[in-house]
Design a protein that fits this description.
Number of strands: 7
Largest sheet: 7 strands, mixed
Helix content: 40-55%
Strand content: 15-25%
Radius of gyration: 18 Å
Shape: globular
Strand order of the largest sheet: 3-2-1-4-5-7-6
Number of helices: 12
């Protein structure tokens, strides 16, 4: 199966890797993200639907929801609403909400997912106001690595959670490679960094965990041997036989990944109840 991946993603490239922690003011992440995600392609949709990494993240989120047993959930940076759709399919009794910067996505989600409530919002805005009552659980899936001001984003989530509410977050560790620059990553996080950021936002009971070694990490490496080819093959047109075969191979290989080390980072944290010490 690795040979299949190498055939699909090979042809080594000298494309340089960026540092894992670029300066916070290195670019205009909001504008870059809006430009990329507003230009939606069938390749993007197929990636989120078929590729091993996003499917694995959805499974982990569903597991966290099952453990937290919330009555209400908001997805902070909900994109096309796919995660909320998966939550609804498994837990149809939970009241769902989604926020995203893209007003176009929000309008489409509202029509396509009538069981959830949606609103467009700048989650890093200093004047952000949560449009609903505080929720029991917040989901943040592959968002924080796109942000110039992650502290403001975490503050927004903290204010939107009810006391005792749970945050489940996913992001990436390690170097920012070319394919990740292409989709707007500006910072990758270590366990220590994400713990510190969550604690500064006021969260307690913070539990970061790294997963994904070796096949999640290897797939990222192979994809960046020729990033331009990978972006064309897996991010533009709808998937054909080759792309679907790679996705299937990776989904099988991901079953063997470590749950204790790797470049996929998850964190669970809680908003303290009144009177509790907010420090983890």
């Amino acid at each position: 199966m690795l040979t299949m991946l190498e055939i699909a993603l090979a042809h080594p490239s000298d494309y340089p890797m960026s540092p894992s922690l670029p300066p916070a003011d290195s670019g205009h992440a909001k504008d870059a993200n809006r430009a990329y995600y507003d230009r939606r392609t069938q390749g993007q949709e197929d990636y989120w639907r078929l590729m091993a990494a996003p499917r694995f993240r959805v499974r982990m989120a569903l597991r966290a929801v099952a453990q937290a047993r919330p009555a209400t959930i908001c997805d902070f940076g909900c994109g096309n609403g796919a995660l909320l759709g998966a939550v609804h399919a498994r837990f149809p009794h939970i009241q769902l909400m989604g926020l995203d910067l893209s007003s176009e996505l929000i309008a489409e989600n509202s029509k396509r997912l009538p069981y959830a409530s949606f609103a467009a919002a700048d989650l890093c805005g200093e004047t952000f106001a949560f449009p609903w009552e505080p929720v029991d659980m917040a989901l943040s899936m592959e968002v924080i690595e796109h942000l110039d001001q992650p502290g403001l984003y975490l503050n927004s989530i903290y204010r939107a959670l009810a006391p005792g509410g749970t945050l489940f977050l996913s992001t990436q560790s390690g170097p920012i490679r070319a394919t990740e620059q292409h989709v707007g990553h500006v910072r990758h996080w270590s366990r220590e960094d994400i713990h510190e950021a969550l604690a500064q936002a006021g969260f307690s009971d913070i539990s970061p965990r790294s997963t994904g070694w070796p096949f999640h990490d290897l797939s990222k490496y192979l994809a960046n041997r020729n990033p331009d080819k990978t972006i064309r093959s897996f991010g533009e047109s709808g998937y054909g036989f080759k792309q679907k075969a790679v996705c299937l191979a990776l989904r099988c290989l991901f079953l063997c990944n470590s749950r204790r080390c790797g470049l996929q980072l998850f964190a669970v944290a809680r908003k303290p109840l009144p009177g509790e010490d907010g420090q983890a």
